[in-house]
Predict the structure.
Amino acid sequence: MLKALTTAATGMIAQQMNMDIISNNIANVDTSGYKKVRAEFQDLLSQTIKSPGAQVSQGTNQPVGIQVGLGTKTSATQKVFSEGILKTTGNPLDIAIEGKGFLQVQLDDGSIGYTRDGSLKVDANGQVTTTDGYIIQPQITIGTNVSEITITPDGRISVRQGSETEQNEIAQIQLVRFANPAGLLSIGKNMFIETGASGNAIEGEPGQEGFGTIEQGFLEGSNVQVVEELINLIQAERAFEANSKLIKSSDNMLRTANQIV
């Protein structure tokens, strides 16, 4: 009965983390470029009372054994990099990556971060940045007195300045991809950094093999499906409730045993 208490407790702890993950997904349902997270679980070690295959008599083996599981634990939190729905904004500096790829930005410490949030801005120096002021890499300078900006699906940026009649191509957006994007480390602000699990960044132009294309005037929405998350929420709540009832039942059995005179 004591095993039941501790086993059910591991289930409650695991479902509590599952609830935290689901809550974060729902909280980011409107976050541009957000990728939902899925909790993954695995069972703990089992106590082996009788091993399957053990010899019980001359030439005879035990066909099955006796093993008692000791609970569960969270084994991983998997980032799901499926594409979110593209939302039209009409802003010429809003871009969405349709397909695989990340934008590169320079972080405060000089290292490179990666994002799929294409809500770009222009700072006082005319440089293209993220909402938080991180400069897009390679650097793109739009300049001042720009009356029109065009970004093609292959990432070429052209601008028309002032009263000029023709546009001039000024830059080329570069994308990167990873062998295992789920191995990237999320650091907040819609930003990821490279890890040993993700593999090295592979750079290329939009539209090349293995890279997505650029859609101007759109933003990629979160890939969180609210209905799916609500179903997961109900399942997690019921699993938590079932484990709590197991603890209560084990407590009642212990109480009954203690009352035997």
